[in-house]
Amino acid sequence: MTVPAIGDVFRKLAEDGWEGLKFEPFRDGIEIARLFGKADQGASGAVLKYRPGSSAPRHRHPGFETIVVLDGAQSDEAGTYVKGDVVVNPPGSIHTVISESGCVVLIVWEKPVEFVNG
């Protein structure tokens, strides 16, 4: 199987939108459409769709995470991010994500996250 260039993946997403992507269950209340990479290895990218009131548990980023809010809004300890906002979480950052109203985000992880307690 040939892996598409990341630029081609993002170009197609920009041209076709996220609505036609194939989503599958990811976490309670969150669906994922994987764009490239594997969940447990190295860099990967996806579109996540949060149902209203859903959240991602507290986690640490061993590498950079970049988020582009495509629709709706999501919040963490640093604030609330709405459609068009770009968030960069640096290595070592820890947060919990919630979407009260629901949202869709493009997300790119440099390395898989590590879930933490407390």
Label the CATH architecture: Sandwich
Count of DSSP-assigned helices: 1
CATH class category: Mainly Beta
Main β sheet profile: 7 strands, antiparallel
- The CATH homologous superfamily is called Jelly Rolls
The CATH topology is given as Jelly Rolls
User: How many domains in all?
Assistant: 1
Rg: 14 Å
The residue ranges in which pLDDT falls below 50 over 5 or more consecutive positions are none
Distance between the termini: 41 Å
Amount of helix: under 10%
Strand and helix order: HEEEEEEEEEE
Which properties best describe this structure?
118 residues; mainly beta; Jelly Rolls; 3-stranded antiparallel β-sheet; 1 helix; globular
In short:
The protein is mainly beta and 118 residues long. It has one helix at 6-16, and strands at residues 24-27, 30-38, 41-50, 54-60, 65-76, 79-82, 86-89, 94-99, 103-109, 114-115. It has a single domain (27-115), classed as Jelly Rolls (Sandwich), CATH 2.60.120.
